[in-house]
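Q: Can someone sanity-check these two? First one:
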Amino acid sequence: MEQFKKSIVKLLKEDARRTPALIATMLGASEEEVAAAIRELEDAGVIVKYATVVNWAKVEEERVTALIEVQITPERGRGFDAIAERIYLYPEVKSVYLMSGSYDLLVEIEGKTLNEVAWFVSNKLSPIERVLSTRTNFTLKKYKQDGIIFENPDEDNRLLISP
């Protein structure tokens, strides 16, 4: 990919609300060149979606996020892909990653309650043929996501010491 398009991708990753006009100014290009490059990146599947990062802890809505380590037996001829596809098609599943190490897939899911997540693991994920084992880890607090720090780093949280 040419450097011009890489620069556009980086700028949009930092802030998806940047307009082609602003990006053009930042890169010293014309708005038309930037808009055309963005269309090409979208058509090629490089830019897949424009998303908002939400700090759900500040929204009065209960959410439970779990990271599930899954060990599987790969399928002959398709490896891990067939099982990963079966898993990522569930609407609860937010992300699926093929991993190196002691487990094969890392599955991120969201539910409204711990019981909802437990039900997903026991009734949808574990019964899949070729799933050997699962280990569920619940997210207690998010400090940073996609490069965004949720806590105010400027706050001084040191304890006062008096003489």
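And here is the second, same format, sequence then tokens:
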Amino acid sequence: MAGKVAAKLAALGITLPTPAAPIANYVAYNVTGNLVVISGQIPLQDRKIVFTGKVGAGVSIETAQQAARLCFVNLAAQLQAAVGDLDRVTKVVRLGGFIAAGPEFTQHAQVMNGASDLAVAIFGDVGRHARTTIGVPSLPGDATVEVEGMFEFA
């Protein structure tokens, strides 16, 4: 029988992908005590970066929100690999968002809401989290967004 989080994912039409392997000298996640820290995830789908470019310079806020949402889907896939069952998650502690944009762009928080809103949609109140969102000049593979996370589990 599917757990509560798996049922929520299904209701949202989300199937978690196979977690992406690291592309450099790092691990996808680290578990310490009852915390999982997950390395930054980019908007990969079927092993391809599907959202590229800079927000405000050819990429709309709405498109970037979709990219952030996909990043959170990839975080959830890594989280499931780390803890086995997403129902074990007791808190989305923190998300960090990196938004590729030019210096004139100032709506980074709106972009990151794509990930934050999905965290709450999937996990409910457990999904409410602290957050940092910053603009950067570029990301790996010209990705539009990258999202990292810290999660507590039982």
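A (reply): Looked at the second one. The chain has three helices and nine strands. The radius of gyration is 15 Å.
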